[in-house]
Amino acid sequence: SPPRWPSTSRAITAARRAARLAAEVAVDITSHHGGETRCARNFRVVPYDVPRGCAAAYFPEANVLVPHDHVAAGSNTPASKAIVVTVRRAESAVRS
Asked: For 72, phi and psi rounded to 5 degrees?
């Protein structure tokens, strides 16, 4: 059966132990491709069973992370399922 996603629209689940992030912590997600970085700010960590080293996020909220030139061969559609990201505490949370 398909996974059941959390109900909040600005949610992210990540390999929380690897990132040492607790549930509900605000995070900034940065994608890395071709020397370029793109950032999605103020997502919330949601505990969810995903493979270690993987993350899941809602789209279209996470579209900003997908590089314009990173597309699937043949279909030329955005390669949303194959982007490298880092997850850190939100800058707004660090400042407060």
From this structure: -75, 140
Could you tell me how many residues make up the chain?
A: 96
Neighbours of 67 (CB within 10 A): 16
Sign of the CA dihedral running 95, 37, 68, 4: negative
User: Residue 59 carries which side chain, given as an amino acid letter?
Assistant: F
Distance, C-alpha 5 to centroid of its chain: 14
Shortest CA distance to 8 belongs to which of 76, 53, 63, 56? Answer: 56
The two three-digit tokens of residue 65, written as one number? 């992370």
Closest CA to 81 of 42, 43, 54, 61: 54
Where is pLDDT greater, at 32 or 9? 32
User: What is the chain's alpha carbon radius of gyration, rounded to the nearest angstrom?
Assistant: 14
At position 2, the amino acid (one-letter code) is P
pLDDT in tens, 66-84: 988 888 889 988 888 888 8
